[in-house]
Specification:
Order of helices and strands: EEHHH
Strand content: 5-15%
Strand order of the largest sheet: 1-2
Largest sheet: 2 strands, antiparallel
Radius of gyration: 27 Å
Oligomer: single chain
Number of helices: 3
Number of domains: 1
Length: about 110
């Protein structure tokens, strides 16, 4: 190989380390978005997920954001969205109560 840059090829184990043959990089599996960890999905190269090597039910997880976010991350998103909506409702109720108090004090 003429390319001398670091990482341009992987070396074989010690017994053949003199010959720097290019090797296909392995896969570390599908990630969980911003959360550390891996899915329990077979570790393949991206193109192999697209090809029909695996049936669809082995490539994804059956839930919202299946195969992209973990169950805990999805739960966290749902709870966060629910709490934000609750806050909006509470603000609206407090605003209405304040308006009623103002009206009662004027009359």
């Amino acid at each position: 190989m003429t390319n001398k840059q670091i990482g341009s090829f992987r070396r074989l184990p010690a017994f053949s380390s003199i010959i720097g043959l290019p090797l296909r990089p392995g896969s570390s599996g599908k990630g969980l978005g911003w959360v550390y960890g891996r899915f329990q999905i077979p570790h393949l190269r991206p193109a192999e997920y697209k090809r029909s090597r695996l049936p669809r039910n082995r490539r994804t997880v059956n839930r919202a954001y299946g195969g992209v976010l973990s169950g805990g991350a999805v739960r966290e998103r749902i709870i966060r969205a629910f709490l934000v909506e609750e806050q909006k409702i509470v603000k609206k109720v407090l605003k209405i109560q304040k308006a009623k108090e103002k009206q009662a004090s004027k009359s």
